[in-house]
Amino acid sequence: MCGIVGYVGEREASGVLVHGLQLLEYRGYDSAGLAVLANGDVSVRRSVGKLKNLENLLAVEPLPGKSGIGHTRWATHGRPSEANAHPHRAGRVVLIHNGIIENFLELRAELQASGREFSSETDTEIVAHLIDDEMARGRDLAAATRAAIARLEGSFALVVMSSDEPGKLFAAKSATPIVIGLGDGENFVASDVPALLDYTRDMLFLEDGEMAEISSAGVRLSLFDGTPVEREPRRITWDPVTAQKSGYKHFMLKEINEQPQATIDTMRGRLLVESGDVTLEDLESSNDWWNQVERIDLVACGTAWHACLVGKFFIEKLARVPCNVDYGSEFRYRDPILDGRGMLLAVSQSGETADTLAAVEAARAAKVRTAAICNVVDSSIARRSDAVLYTHAGPEISVASTKAFVTQLTALLLIAIHIGRRRGTLAADASGELIESLLHLPGPMRDALAMADEIDALARRYVNAENFLFVGRGLNYPIALEGALKLKELSYIHAEGYPAGELKHGPIALISETMPVVVLLPKNGAYAKTLSNMKEVESRGGQIIVVTDVDDPAVEEVANDVIRVPTVHSLLMPIILSIPLQLLSYFVAVHRGTDVDQPRNLAKSVTVE
Ligand code: F6R
Question: What structural domains and CATH numbers belong to the chain?
Fold first, then answer.
């Protein structure tokens, strides 16, 4: 999830590139860089931190020239540093990359064995070396890029240039977006439309497996194997703000819709389908702990805390390690048992949440081993933990967490499978079945997202409710808590989540005709018992909205509304059930006219106690 811009034409390239990168600033970044060709040479400027730092550098060391590439980095492999910032250079090749090269360790070993030296920790630099290697064998830039791409596994949007072929850029796409902007005597390339809107509205979108040769005279599309591709440009009529949201009305809706891809990115390179195992290189150094640990403290705040509740279920079920789930703000003050037999697993999207960070520090002070699940690379929690598993969900801009939550669930499940397999509590066939289901999960997730219009209509019916209850059981009970949290933070409606079995111990007193109750009723989640809880609500006049994967007349009879979701493996149902609840909160908030992306009183990253 980085920002990419490229330019060829008659303007000063650096101005176009910096302006494009400014328009991608909303993606968040940790370093930036530019490469521009002049007098037969490509010069590079890079700097860590905000784009302003790069702009300051360019003021002192300008980059004149009419063609170039620019990049803002959102770190995946290697911490944010000048050496890891793009563009990367190898010999005569300079390139920028967005995505993850999964087989980069093997490729690096091979290139190192042939005498190549690396100046960064990134997967990207490998690609520059591969292309340069091919050029050294006499191939031109196009052929060398094709040959290098054929060796890559993973996802990539690449833009490549070389002093050997001035005035040309090559772009290639596999599972990561690339758009080409068509001008008059000039052409552009970017990761996202907003970077180009001030120059052109005529765009060509590359498809997976396609390359583009871009010069000031024109753009030629082809498949990776060289077969020419013909495509008509599209005229983009979005205003600049809509463009930043890829055409969605809000970042939240964009991020909800990004969840299938974000889940793929969390799993990428970590599932070993044949052996039914999960490999977590990032946690490799902690392998021994997983074997020895007698207790895991899962610590987080807010939505991430809900992910931990599901994580406890995953880890206890698959790995049989007892788990305790704590709020960061509670853990640090409650004199927890911190000894060598336990470990702490912190979960945080931002990696900067003060209370969660304090829990990590408390564990460190007590010499307890720590691991973290984070989205933001090199964030404080990631740096302070002994091991870290990144979710790779890309920047989450909406304050209300959605794709970060779903990818935290995915990461927790990967950890549970990993520990379960190591400790011998999870048989290969059961884990194989789970991995197979994980691989197919993006499909049902997309089917759940396709229910948006239906959920919008439902939201309109309940928009004036002042209270809501959400109930679920087992590993889906935390999803009820999360559904209630999303609704209250977005629409300011009072909402509570409960285990369905708890209703009769108090909350049932709240039930009346004005109380909508959202019931999570998956087939495998104590179905009959939850159904009888629903009947208790019905007999007290409550309005019942059921989210289920079951087609059962008994449900239709009792429910006022039924949202039917796809069936997946029972351990994956929390992910599927989350989607309609996110959409429900989103549409209720839209119809109540609240500020969806920045709800009142909330901040994206809570860095104070
Ligand atoms: C709710 C939400 C918050 C965060 C919480 C922890 O939608 O986003 O509850 O989950 O503030 O944040 P991170 O995950 O950054 O530690």
Answer: 3-241 (3.60.20.10), 244-440 (3.40.50.10490), 452-592 (3.40.50.10490)
